[in-house]
């Protein structure tokens, strides 16, 4: 099987800082990759390349084998129709209701009102926000805002989902709820994707693969089990410091919940 998304030897310098230095990562259809790494290592920058929001200085991003930077306008639009992006801050429009925010991407696609209504009912059901359609973002709690942003990212029934720290700033209970939602939506919609996160080890229960970004490259790529068993001292130290407060039961609980997701 060929990757749905391939980041190939991507280099990117921003304001003189070499952020990406040959990053390579493949995402297979229906597989979700957890992208981990230290703060400032370039995880969000890598995700923006995957979304076509940043162009590599060198290297390529391929979607179904097509180089993203060489797509015609029409093909780029059809790539965006297949893509859902959950931004770190949710990026909802303050003056638009939940309904208007979520349906925004569909209106750009020109779907009819009946289909829009059916889709919003499905997606609001997935994220548990039924009945909040008329509220403004300012009337929602942090967890509800994330759910609304997730609903907006899912409304096009994307084949590829990119999540940039979907649970940052939320309390542990809501983090678990959002993780469960991401997991159940993935099982339902079967998308492939990348989740940038600091939630270790919780992320290992959500993803099929883990990629560790270090010094501008993917230093490790493997299953959550392989992370657990790694002998790489740098990854080991990173994981150990991130899980210092977690007991081994939690670790094994996380590995146990990862059942393929696809
Ligand atoms: N648009 C930009 N212009 C200039 N520098 C940028 C830009 N975006 C990111 N950077 C820089 O690139 C580096 C990597 O940033 P990035 O946000 O990708 O890190 P990260 O791994 O996602 O970090 P964190 O986990 O803390 O969110 C940082 O030094 C950041 O300041």
UniProtKB/TrEMBL annotation:
PROSITE patterns attached here? ABC_TRANSPORTER_1, ABC_TRANSPORTER_2
**Pfam families (alphabetical):** ABC_tran (PF00005)
Gene3D superfamilies referenced in this protein's UniProt entry, alphabetically: P-loop containing nucleotide triphosphate hydrolases (3.40.50.300)
Q: Which GO molecular function entries does the Swiss-Prot or TrEMBL record give?
A: ATP binding; ATP hydrolysis activity
Key words, A-Z: ATP-binding, Nucleotide-binding, Transport
Report the domain of life of the source organism: Bacteria
- Domain named ABC transporter is located at 5-240
Supply the name of the protein: Putative ABC transporter ATP-binding protein
């Amino acid at each position: 099987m060929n990757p749905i998304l391939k980041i190939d030897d991507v280099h990117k310098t921003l304001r003189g800082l070499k952020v990406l230095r040959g990053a390579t990562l493949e995402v297979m259809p229906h597989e979700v990759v957890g992208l981990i790494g230290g703060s400032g290592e370039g995880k969000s920058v890598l995700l923006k390349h995957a979304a076509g929001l940043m162009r590599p200085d060198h290297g390529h991003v391929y979607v179904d084998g097509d180089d993203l930077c060489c797509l015609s306008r029409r093909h780029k639009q059809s790539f965006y129709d297949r893509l859902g992006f959950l931004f770190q801050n949710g990026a909802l429009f303050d003056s638009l209701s939940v309904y208007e925010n979520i349906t925004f991407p569909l209106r750009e696609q020109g779907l009819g009102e009946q289909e829009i209504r059916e889709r919003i009912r499905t997606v609001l059901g997935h994220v548990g926000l039924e009945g909040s359609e008329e509220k403004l973002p300012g009337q929602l709690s942090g967890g509800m805002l994330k759910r609304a942003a997730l609903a907006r990212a899912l409304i096009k029934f994307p084949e590829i989902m990119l999540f940039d720290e979907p649970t940052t700033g939320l309390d542990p209970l809501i983090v678990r709820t959002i993780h469960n939602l991401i997991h159940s939506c993935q099982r339902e919609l079967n998308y492939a994707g990348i989740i940038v996160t600091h939630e270790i080890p919780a992320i290992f229960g959500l993803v099929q693969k883990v990629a560790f970004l270090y010094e501008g490259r993917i230093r490790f790529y493997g299953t959550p089990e392989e992370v657990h068993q790694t002998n790489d001292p740098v990854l080991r130290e990173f994981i150990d410091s991130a899980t210092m407060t977690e007991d081994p039961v939690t670790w094994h609980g996380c590995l146990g919940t990862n059942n393929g997701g696809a």
